[in-house]
Amino acid sequence: FIRLVMVCCMCTMWTESYFDLFGAQGSKAFCSGGDQALRDSDGYVDFDSFGRLNVLDLQVQIRRLPKPVIAMVAGYAVGGGHVLHMVCDLTIAADNAIFGQTGPKVGSFDAGYGSSIMSRLVGPKKAREMWFLSRFYAAEEAERMGLVNVVVPLADLERETVKWCRQILRNSPTAIRVLKSALNAADDGHAGLQELGGNATLIFYGTEEAKEGKNAYMERRRPDFSKFPRKP
Known about the structure:
Layout (H helix, E strand, L loop, with lengths): L1 H12 L6 E3 L6 E3 L7 E2 L2 E3 L5 E2 L1 H11 L4 E5 L2 E3 L1 H8 L2 E5 L3 E3 L12 H10 L1 H10 L2 E3 H7 L4 E3 L4 H13 L3 H33 L2 H11 L14
Parallel strand pairs: 1-6, 2-7, 6-8, 7-9, 8-11
Antiparallel strand pairs: 3-4, 4-5, 9-10
Helix pairs in contact: 1-2, 3-4, 4-5
């Protein structure tokens, strides 16, 4: 999870990247969550022998990344791995994918995005079922529940994912960026509104109206905003 946090930070600054893909080598598992052997009373022990929940930073990075993040899921996406795919913007699943939460079985839970996002995706009752019973769900059922966008044969998973990526590339990157912030804002509270507001500010800074304000200040004159229409 620490490496994934670092990758997300790098992707934010890499202007040649228009979206990011999360997948795994092989077809048996996308991600099964935290290693219980590393879990201690203060979290999961990292390289410095301190307990942390680094996955929380990763979830925030995915939500704030100013470009789409796509989960390409084959095999098991359970526990923290299930939350990981849910916080991604899109999920493309192979027909062998298995989804579910395991936390209560091992004395754990995710009371953050793992609960709130799931409730948004599948509804409060189904979210309670998934957490309280800790069942696993096949790809087709996950699609019916709204957990994933599409299910394709395992052999076609990469091809379908590339197809979706190419369709995204045809669209305005700025529109996609602001739409992602807007869609997240309702779930992310003030932090989500701050992200949306920041993206709106960046767009405004590129307008002639904003430049007039800056230039007037630098030239020590009164700005002339009368030339910009006040649209209804």
